[in-house]
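agent: user wants the structure for SemiSWEET transporter from Aerosakkonema funiforme FACHB-1375. delegating to structure tool.
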Amino acid sequence: MDLLTVLGLLAGTLTTIAFLPQVIKTWKSKSAKDFSFGMLITFSLGVFLWLVYGIAKNDLPVIVANLLTFVLNLIIISLKTRYK
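agent: tool returned. relaying tokens verbatim.
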């Protein structure tokens, strides 16, 4: 694995991990009222498109980071729907 791929994986890990505390807080508090549903959907679409791009380019860091971020965002959307 080359240095650029390692750098991309590290960057993707950090930006994905940054989203994790919000998922945990939402889960524990059973409240997602501060999230705009429009923002969550727009963000999910953007992350999904980055995932498609990463797959098309066969770019491992883009694929991994956006797949994990997409899953975390889907969890928040699910919690927002559940805790209305």
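agent: one observation worth passing along. The chain has one domain: 3-82.
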